């Protein structure tokens, strides 16, 4: 009877590192039972540890191979799952990608397979969060003409929204910030740059409201008009608090002009 060897892969917790891990697994002809960050403690019992060195060339080869075997939407699903940041996502994706590579036929709709089903369900959750950010993002106009929007997404979906906002507001400078992960993107009318703020626990980065001294002179008026409009179209007799909170989760409220007091 042959005993199963416990193999651990460690990597830098990047998507490129994950793709490199799959490349290494095939090159070594051995697949890991666990995929850990380089800084994570190793389990008490294991037989071998392989350190994955992220290689962009290897990662690109793996990604191209996956794209050849997956429809575009399902290749995108892999990115969505990665951005979920859930602890189980890296190993789940590694198993999914191995199944895709090994199968001689398309398997992305084989929902009887728990791995395929789990990746699909997780990707849909991330996609839903992206859509909610597109729905609920509210911009405040700053004194310098920049439009500032801030949210705390459940998943790391801000990168998935940038293309939409760049196309939708192509002629306006804007900043979109993730208060939970403390980074965002700035658009100057030409190109988008990733940014971070030094004092991420103060002001708008904590409360969602920009200090009045930093706002455009007409912004308070616009916010008041939006609140009045929101109140005027609300039919109090038809209020359904349970459905309202389902459609517009409470965790977004502090960033919504119509829900902010004062």
Automatic annotation (TrEMBL):
<dbReference type="Pfam" id="PF13566">
    <property type="entry name" value="DUF4130"/>
</dbReference>
<dbReference type="InterPro" id="IPR023875">
    <property type="entry name" value="DNA_repair_put"/>
</dbReference>
<protein>
    <recommendedName>
        <fullName>DUF4130 domain-containing protein</fullName>
    </recommendedName>
</protein>
<feature type="domain" description="DUF4130">
    <location>
        <begin position="89"/>
        <end position="258"/>
    </location>
</feature>
<dbReference type="InterPro" id="IPR025404">
    <property type="entry name" value="DUF4130"/>
</dbReference>
